[in-house]
């Protein structure tokens, strides 16, 4: 394993034999196992981590095979989000078959020793970008490199974002992503779709995706003006559609309009380095957008998932909204939990540029602690990595203009360790909550629970044996990624995955990664996840607004002269001419004028005498002019 | 009013007791024939009283105790009572001050004030209440200005004396938000500048700031001039104007500059609501704020999320709800709070002072309060309606009544809202009370009888504003009299740069003075109001406190229920840009907050090749393979609402072949703009 490992004294003492003789609380074990183990010669490993003990005849060759691995994980403490208990786990055909003591299992199974360690569900990373290009450049870490790193950090399921370029077909993009991932991914994956331009025409595709393709979450951007940004109206419509289809709306929450203006201003001021990125993406811009997204979600009664919570105030908005009963979830990421934005002012351009992501890391150094606390108390629910790594050469595209720097940081590998180190080992959360925020909550929200995110009979055998005592120091030299700069360089984290089992196969042990390209399966997710939609459904029933039955108003009514505003628009005539209108500079000032056809200023540049409300030849001429 | 006054002045045989204390100097004594016997007795009393009054505060207390009697004898301060009151003044001279301790105006005998401007007045024995302190002092007014404030004033002979009898003498109210000419679908509000300002004066408001509401595409300057002309003709009190910016473009900028530099306008309203009509996008707001900040103007914001409202309205109409309750349902409180939050964020980014008009809900007010705590320069204006009543009336079975409450943002359905807003007002988290007076008759409201979105928006409140702030906040012990003055006039004057000309009783200030009677009480009714609308949304609500006497420009325009307003007397008050109250902090922040880049060596490492970034050119429509991606048709515009302004529209060239884009067509650009 490429990351540096150190064993504490504890671990040395905790080697099997010494532990058997100790009085320390130890796992319940069935006597047979003890006997068997006692009779066996104990291999001394320099690593205190779990070791795999092979029965005679079992060889490494078996690892190549996907199915058929039979494993028993012995002596570990099973930690789910609700409780912890000591039991053995028997895995066959990639699923968990038995849990308990004194399991009756066939012979010839591989034994994974988990004494003194935690057996937790494999991590679910709900936000990665391993395939989404920026400015035509593909991320340095693709599905292979990315999932390999994920596995080495204890993450066994990723959910990648499919970036659908404006105007492109959702299904095509989805197929493309799925193909790429199936070819390369080493762990199970699922996909979110990023919708960059909403229009009614997408409904059909959405329905297909949700009902047939197993996608139940869609990301919208409130940032990236003129590129991906959705207006409030679009969000409102889209949220309404998603609610009806039973999907979750994800939001990249930043006010793109303000950012755009700020970027122009900063470039004008001559600030071109990465510090311009954070200066143009101030915290309040994130907060504002979160607030707005929450408001729209509340109005539409649609569940909302805020990706990449990077600042205290944004997290607070989510926490407050939850207290008001709004169905909203927040996702801090590895970077925001582990570091802050001071690095944007680094004198070293590649370092500073490596931190560029949106929303940016916050300058307030207390942000990571605050976010960890909210995570611990349940105000934030899911941790992900938002992994999108670009090499220094790629980042250098923006060396003279920070707006061109491809955005994204690493974090897929360090995620679980960061949470353990920052939250569990500091006493903010317990091991069960750790499991909840690293896997269970994500699995529940996105409807892959209990297949993922739980150690239970019938669940997928995505299991991590977690060594809370070991530490490792992050370094770009030792990480499993291709990217040259690791934003967490030099930080030391307690808590390391010592054995990782993905799909019933051991992919990490003794620090050795043994992954198979393309072994990852696509995990389809059903609509209407219970965790989210139970409340939404109940509210939909309750929320029926009712009018007041009144007698007809029969008083005098003021005459309205020729109300030109109320003439309904004649859509048919506008279609083809519409794009042409866009061309003129005028469009600039009309951006708000839409939909109702009510444009009051339609008739302004012309003389009012010529205002023809109902021209003899029908209305088409006039509308086509507008 | 002048008629009445002159009539009185002609009465040479004015009651003796009305002779002012100044006139009682040894040289001033005159013999008053038939009243002489009475005179002596009464005169000495007057002198005694005046010595007390000018000399010491403490002596005032027994006198203030006599106020209760006013309550008993005081008729409701409506129009109907005026005759009786007047009669009592002139016809029963024997009645001494102690019996009738209301405000008493004494006219100097033989003193002729031919025109209102040169009128001289002395307000005696009042407690002058400013926003910072209250003092017992007399106020001497000449030429429409306050000339002296203090005790033992030396004033010329023959001034008219107003006995305040220990009541509060406060600066006349400033109503910062009225719409007396805002047309809706071509109909004008029932209260125009005449009716509206009359109502204002009757309520103790001596200055209004009206909103100029040009339609999109109209010239702001023209609209401004139209408003000014109408107001000059009709307004009975001083006025100033806000100009609403219905759309944002280059021409608007020029006009704004003109308005600020030459016309004396320093506040402009932008809308976040009224989609497709007045609404500005965030980018436009950002630009507008930046520009207004350069000009030194205050950005007023109508804060509601118009996009969502438009959607909600469609939804609710589709559900078959067409009555006024649909108005409240389609504009929930959250949308107001959200927009307030956004406006503040924008203002803070630009570092421009933001003034939220019409704060109607608790959450919006809280948002403002929190932002102020973070240091944002933001002001909030609750209005009469939101301080007094709530949105339950939208569900009223009587359509006309329910429709009368229609205003935007709507009254909150939470019945604790008025109380909360009053508390925030008292604590200084909200600063200014407006009225958003925009009265439409029931027949005008009935335009929307089948579709609530067509109901003209606006409620009354200009007349009741001061009294209700007193009743709901001061009389409840939430705020003191100084804070009362602050929120009804001083703060507004400061924010809009009228201070200290308006909003303060001080030497040199305009003589817009109100003698406030905290103990009077009346029941609001449409029958008694000055406003021309047939419905008063506060109908039947009892309200303590009210003006006993109102001076506008140094003339008595309202006195114990009698209004003597003079049409066209109102002057336009120009306001300079960069009001200190809003801009001092802004200026310093600009200096303090200069963004610093990092000086680095040049990056000389490898740079990834970027191809002509075809990624961001959206594939041409023909390339769309999906069956669903129909050419986003007429509705297309809908989804593009954010594409604007910078000209950088990434999708500009999408539906067209890029070769065809004509940046500067041979014949000039005029054709294209005409088409647009």
Automatic annotation (TrEMBL), chain A:
Molecular function terms from GO: hydrolase activity, acting on carbon-nitrogen (but not peptide) bonds, in cyclic amides
Residue span(s) of domain Amidohydrolase-related: 119-506
SUPFAM superfamilies in alphabetical order: Composite domain of metallo-dependent hydrolases (SSF51338), Metallo-dependent hydrolases (SSF51556)
Sequence segments annotated as region (Disordered): 1-67
A Pfam family it matches: Amidohydro_1
UniProt xrefs under InterPro entries: Amidohydro-rel, Hydantoinase/dihydroPyrase, Metal-dep_hydrolase_composite, Metal_Hydrolase, Metallo-dep_Hydrolases_sf
GO cellular component, one term: cytosol
Domain of life according to the entry: Eukaryota
NCBIfam families on file: D-hydantoinase
Family: Belongs to the metallo-dependent hydrolases superfamily. Hydantoinase/dihydropyrimidinase family.
Name listed for the protein in its UniProt record: Amidohydrolase-related domain-containing protein
Annotated source species: Gasterosteus aculeatus aculeatus
TrEMBL record, chain B:
GO MF term set: hydrolase activity, acting on carbon-nitrogen (but not peptide) bonds, in cyclic amides
Keyword tags: Cytoplasm
One GO cellular component, as annotated: cytosol
Pfam family, one: Amidohydro_1
Amidohydrolase-related domain segment(s): 168-557
Compositionally skewed regions (Low complexity) per UniProt: 618-629
Subcellular location: Cytoplasm
InterPro entries in alphabetical order: Amidohydro-rel, Hydantoinase/dihydroPyrase, Metal-dep_hydrolase_composite, Metal_Hydrolase, Metallo-dep_Hydrolases_sf
Keyword Transport: no
Annotated stretches, region: Disordered: 52-101, 614-637
CDD domains in alphabetical order: D-HYD
Family: Belongs to the metallo-dependent hydrolases superfamily. Hydantoinase/dihydropyrimidinase family.
Protein name stated in the entry: Collapsin response mediator protein 1
Organism: Gasterosteus aculeatus aculeatus (three-spined stickleback)
């Amino acid at each position: 394993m490429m990351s540096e490992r150190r064993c504490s004294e504890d671990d040395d003492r905790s080697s099997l034999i010494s532990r058997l003789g100790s009085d320390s609380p130890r796992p319940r074990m069935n006597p047979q196992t003890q006997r068997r183990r006692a009779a066996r010669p104990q291999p001394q490993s320099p690593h205190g981590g779990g070791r795999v003990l092979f029965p005679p005849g079992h060889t490494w060759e078996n690892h190549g095979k996907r199915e058929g691995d039979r494993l028993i994980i012995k002596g570990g403490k099973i930690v789910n989000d609700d409780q912890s208990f000591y039991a053995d786990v028997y895995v066959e055909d990639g699923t968990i078959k038995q849990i308990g003591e004194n399991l009756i299992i066939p012979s010839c199974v591989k034994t994974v020793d988990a004494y003194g360690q935690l057996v937790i569900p494999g991590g679910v990373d709900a936000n990665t970008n391993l395939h989404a290009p920026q400015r035509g450049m593909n991320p340095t870490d693709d599905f292979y490199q990315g999932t390999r790193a994920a596995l080495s950090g204890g993450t066994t399921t990723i959910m990648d974002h499919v970036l659908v370029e404006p105007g492109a077909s959702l299904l095509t993009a989805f197929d493309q992503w799925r193909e790429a991932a199936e070819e390369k991914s080493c762990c199970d994956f699922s996909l979110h779709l990023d919708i960059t331009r909403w229009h009614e025409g997408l409904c059909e595709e959405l329905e297909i995706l949700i009902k047939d393709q197993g996608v139940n979450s869609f990301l919208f951007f409130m940032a990236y003006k003129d590129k991906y940004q959705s207006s409030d109206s679009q969000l409102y419509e889209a949220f309404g559609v998603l609610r009806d289809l039973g999907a979750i709306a994800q939001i990249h929450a930043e006010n793109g309009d303000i950012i755009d203006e700020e970027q122009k201003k900063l470039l004008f001021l001559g600030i071109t380095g990465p510090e311009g990125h954070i200066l143009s993406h101030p915290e309040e811009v994130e907060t504002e957008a979160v607030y707005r997204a929450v408001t729209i979600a509340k109005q539409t009664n649609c569940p909302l998932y805020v990706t990449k919570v990077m600042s205290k105030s944004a997290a607070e908005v989510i926490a407050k909204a939850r207290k008001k009963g709004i169905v909203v979830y927040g996702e801090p990421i590895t970077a925001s939990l582990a570091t802050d934005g001071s690095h944007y002012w680094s004198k070293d351009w590649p370092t500073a540029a490596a931190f560029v992501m949106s929303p940016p890391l916050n300058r307030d150094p207390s942000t990571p602690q605050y976010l960890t606390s909210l995570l611990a108390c349940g105000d934030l629910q899911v941790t992900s990595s938002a992994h999108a790594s670009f090499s220094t050469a790629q980042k250098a595209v923006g060396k003279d203009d920070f707006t061109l720097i491809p955005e994204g940081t690493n974090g897929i590998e360090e995620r679980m360790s960061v949470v353990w180190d920052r939250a569990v080992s500091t006493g903010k959360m317990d091991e069960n909550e750790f499991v909840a925020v690293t896997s269970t909550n994500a699995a529940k929200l996105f409807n892959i629970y209990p297949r993922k995110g739980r150690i239970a009979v019938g669940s997928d055998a995505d299991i991590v044996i977690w060594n809370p005592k070991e530490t490792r120091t992050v370094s770009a030299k030792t990480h499993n990624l291709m990217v040259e700069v690791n934003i967490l360089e030099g930080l030391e984290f307690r808590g390391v995955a010592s054995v990782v089992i993905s799909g019933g196969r051991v992919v990490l042990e003794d620090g050795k990664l043994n992954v198979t390209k393309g072994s990852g399966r696509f995990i389809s997710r059903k609509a209407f996840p219970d965790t989210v939609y139970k409340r939404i459904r109940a509210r939909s029933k309750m929320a029926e607004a009712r009018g007041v039955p009144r007698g007809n108003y029969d008083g005098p009514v003021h005459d309205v002269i020729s109300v030109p505003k109320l003439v309904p628009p004649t859509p048919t005539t506008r279609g083809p001419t519409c794009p042409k209108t866009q061309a003129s500079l005028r469009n600039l000032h009309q951006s708000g004028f839409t939909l109702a056809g009510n444009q009051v200023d339609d008739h302004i540049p012309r003389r009012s005498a010529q205002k023809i409300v109902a021209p003899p030849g029908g209305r088409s001429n006039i509308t086509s002019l507008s | 009013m002048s008629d009445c006054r002159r009539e009185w002045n002609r009465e040479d045989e004015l009651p003796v007791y009305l002779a002012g204390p100044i006139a009682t100097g040894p040289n001033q004594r005159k013999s008053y024939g038939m009243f002489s016997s009475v005179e002596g007795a009464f005169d000495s009393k007057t002198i005694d009283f005046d010595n007390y009054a000018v000399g010491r505060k403490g002596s005032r207390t027994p006198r203030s105790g006599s106020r209760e009697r006013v309550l008993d004898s005081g008729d409701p301060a409506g129009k109907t009572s005026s005759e009786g009151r007047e009669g009592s003044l002139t016809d029963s001279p024997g009645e001494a001050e102690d019996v009738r301790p209301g405000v008493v105006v004494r006219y100097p005998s033989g003193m002729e004030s031919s025109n209102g401007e040169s009128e001289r007045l002395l307000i005696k024995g009042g407690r002058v209440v400013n926003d910072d302190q209250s003092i017992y002092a007399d106020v001497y007014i000449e030429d429409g200005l306050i000339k002296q404030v203090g005790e033992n004033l030396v004033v010329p002979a023959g001034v008219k004396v107003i006995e305040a009898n220990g009541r509060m003498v406060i600066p006349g109210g400033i109503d910062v938000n009225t719409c007396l000419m805002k047309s809706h679908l071509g109909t004008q509000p029932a209260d125009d500048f005449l009716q509206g300002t009359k109502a204002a004066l009757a309520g103790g408001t001596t200055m209004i700031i009206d909103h100029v509401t040009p339609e999109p595409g109209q010239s702001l300057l023209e609209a401004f001039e139209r408003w000014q002309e109408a107001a000059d003709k009709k307004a009975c009190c001083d006025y100033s104007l806000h100009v609403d910016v219905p759309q944002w473009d280059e021409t608007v900028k020029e006009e704004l500059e003109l308005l600020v530099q030459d016309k004396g306008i320093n506040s402009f309203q932008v809308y976040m609501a009224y989609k497709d009509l007045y609404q500005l996008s965030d980018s436009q707001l950002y630009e507008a704020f930046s520009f207004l900040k350069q000009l030194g103007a205050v950005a007023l914001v109508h804060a509601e999320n118009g996009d969502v409202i438009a959607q909600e309205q469609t939804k609710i109409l589709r559900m078959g709800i067409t009555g006024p309750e649909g108005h409240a349902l389609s504009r929930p409180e959250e949308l107001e709070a959200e927009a307030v939050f956004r406006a503040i964020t924008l203002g803070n980014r630009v570092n421009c002072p933001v003034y939220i008009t019409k704060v109607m809900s608790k959450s919006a007010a809280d948002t403002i309060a929190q932002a102020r705590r973070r240091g944002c320069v933001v002001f909030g204006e609750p209005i009469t309606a939101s301080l007094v009543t709530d949105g339950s009336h939208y569900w009223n079975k009587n359509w006309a009544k329910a429709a009368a409450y229609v205003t935007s943002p709507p009254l909150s359905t939470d019945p604790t809202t008025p109380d909360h807003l009053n508390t925030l007002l008292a604590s200084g988290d909200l600063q200014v009370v407006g009225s958003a007076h925009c009265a439409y008759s029931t027949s005008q409201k009935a335009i929307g009888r089948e579709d609530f979105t067509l109901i003209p928006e606006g409620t009354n409140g200009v007349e009741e504003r001061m009294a209700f702030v007193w009743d709901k906040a001061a009389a409840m012990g939430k705020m003191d009299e100084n804070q009362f003055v602050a929120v009804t006039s001083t703060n507004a004057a400061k924010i809009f740069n009228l201070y200290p000309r308006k909003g303060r009783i001080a030497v040199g200030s305009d003589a817009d003075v109100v003698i406030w009677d905290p103990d009077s009480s009346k029941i609001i009714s449409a029958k008694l109001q000055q406003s021309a609308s047939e419905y008063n949304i506060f109908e039947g609500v009892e309200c303590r406190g009210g003006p006993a006497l109102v001076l506008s420009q140094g003339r008595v325009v309202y006195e114990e229920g009698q209004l003597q307003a003079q049409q066209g007397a109102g002057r336009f008050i120009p306001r300079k840009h960069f009001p200190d109250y809003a801009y001092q902090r802004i200026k310093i922040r600009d200096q303090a907050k200069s963004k610093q880049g990092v000086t680095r060596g040049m990056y000389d490492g490898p740079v990834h090749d970027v191809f002509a970034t075809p990624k961001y050119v959206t594939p041409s429509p023909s390339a769309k393979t999906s069956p669903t991606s129909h050419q986003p048709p007429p509705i297309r515009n809908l989804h593009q609402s954010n594409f604007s302004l910078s000209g950088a529209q990434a999708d500009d060239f999408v539906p067209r072949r890029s070769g065809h884009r004509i940046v500067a067509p041979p014949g000039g650009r005029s054709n294209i703009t005409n088409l647009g």
